[in-house]
Predict the 3D structure of the following.
Amino acid sequence: MNDDCADSNEVSRISRRKVLLKAIKPAYLLPIPLLFSEQSQAGAQIEEPMMDSVRIALRAAVHSSAPPIPEFKDTESYLKYLRWLGEMSDRLQPKKRDFQTRKEFLQTVWYESRRAGLDTALVLGLIQVESNFRKYAISLVGARGYMQIMPFWLRVLAEEDGKHSTSHLFNMQTNIRFGCVILRHYLDRERGDLLMGLGRYNGSRGKAAYPDAVFAAKKKWEFAG
């Protein structure tokens, strides 16, 4: 066999080996961005001293008895909402197969995000990164539910009579309302700075990885109308 043939065979073997290694590459070696949205990323919020006036305002926001039922000023607004609901339902279908479940979830996110003055697409992006739309997601540090609420928020935002268990944080409306109120609080503290506010929500203030992941996920939930 001449040298050219030997070299050719060796290159061929190396190429086949690279293809095989690529095919069986373990998940832990995949680039982090590919795995990021499948993990629960929040739950590292730090319980901070809070002024009584802030605590009272946050509790009032959480305890409002208003149900998450959309209200519309005119027919066009209602029709736009229905178009949004239909389109988002189609996008969410791979995560939530049951239509009624999707409808109730999306209606709650739509209502609670607007109630807190937040972009609904941003909240959906955050939920995707936080829990990947898993109602019963629990992080390694104990954060719970769709928006990965830390249990200490029950003391801050719920009654202080000890009657509230962490299971309340798996209730859809409770979890999403808490999450939206908490995010609004952090954004207000950061004077509207999304990068810093999202970082504070995640417990990684000043680092870009988490906000960037939320911004990327947000694009999937934007609605042109």
